[in-house]
Design brief:
alpha/beta, L-arginine/glycine Amidinotransferase, Chain A, 3-stranded mixed β-sheet, binds citrulline
Length: 264
């Protein structure tokens, strides 16, 4: 598993509750989201990361979900092309920060291809690319070619038969040690056959989006059965409150870009 050195996050905007959401869990509170975001930053710092905190951007209510406009690796950053029309401008808003880190080692997905970072799941030097309501075949194809150019392999997992799942990583997360935390709905996916699996209970689906940061798995607070199972499998777990982000259909991974030591 990569050793991560730093992370990029963006403070939730005052307009946070106006972002895209099916609204299943009520109206989000932007002030509470900011408090929870600070705790998330503390969790990343506790895992040894230097955290770059970007200013809130009111024009883009979903802009705290920084994982979607960029895919970061140790050798290249790839700017995505949103399917969601209200989020397209987020790529330009994060570009300067990415240029400061990656210089000219930046690639870009071009229309009509669409890719959103939440659909991209890295497992060592391999990437699973989710075909979803947001990432299309053309985008997946462009991304696969870019990754190949930089020495990575990739394969596709479609979640189109699961319309309630927004992005691939909404329902599965790689936590190192050859292990995924995932929802039952994706358990039989043949691409995942070689891995150990922690299956979240039906009422804890949200916890299948989590992150491994160095020696620790960060999970959303209150998903006790998943936390118990993850600890029982031998992982260190940190919990952090996520209720307001869940209301906006965003998970733990969406809130940061985690950057390893670069090999540019
Ligand atoms: C959206 O629908 O685009 C946002 N409300 C949530 C994005 C969550 N991001 C992610 O899963 N990577």
């Amino acid at each position: 598993m990569y050793k991560f050195e730093r992370a990029i996050v963006r403070t939730p905007a005052d307009s946070f509750a106006e972002g895209i959401t099916p609204g299943l869990y009520g109206k989000a509170d932007p002030e509470l989201a900011k408090v929870q975001h600070n705790k998330y930053i503390q969790a990343l710092r506790q895992c040894g990361l230097e955290v770059i905190v970007l200013e809130p951007d009111n024009e883009f209510p979903d802009s705290c979900f920084v994982e979607d406009p960029v895919i970061v690796t140790d050798r290249v950053a790839i700017l995505t092309n949103f399917h969601a029309p209200t989020r397209k401008g987020e790529v330009d808003r994060i570009l300067l920060t990415i240029e400061n880190i990656y210089g000219s080692h930046i690639e870009r997905i071009e229309g009509p291809g669409t890719v959103e970072g939440g659909d991209i799941c890295q497992v060592e030097n391999h990437f699973f690319i989710g075909l979803s309501q947001r990432t299309n075949e053309e985008g997946a194809c462009q991304l696969g070619a870019i990754l190949k150019k930089y020495g990575f392999t990739s394969s596709i997992i479609s979640i189109r038969a699961l319309p309630e799942i927004l992005h691939l990583k909404t329902c599965m997360s790689y936590i190192g040690e050859n292990t995924f935390i995932l929802q039952k709905a994706i358990l039989k996916e043949s691409e995942l056959a070689p891995f150990n699996k922690i299956v979240v209970p039906d009422n804890e689906g949200y916890a299948s989006n989590c992150i491994r940061v160095n020696d620790t798995v960060i999970l959303p607070e209150g998903f006790d059965e998943t936390i118990k199972q993850t600890r029982a499998a031998g992982f260190n777990v940190l919990e952090t409150p996520m209720s307001e982000f869940m209301k906006q259909d965003g998970g733990l991974s969406c809130l940061s870009l985690r950057i390893p030591k670069l090999n540019l």
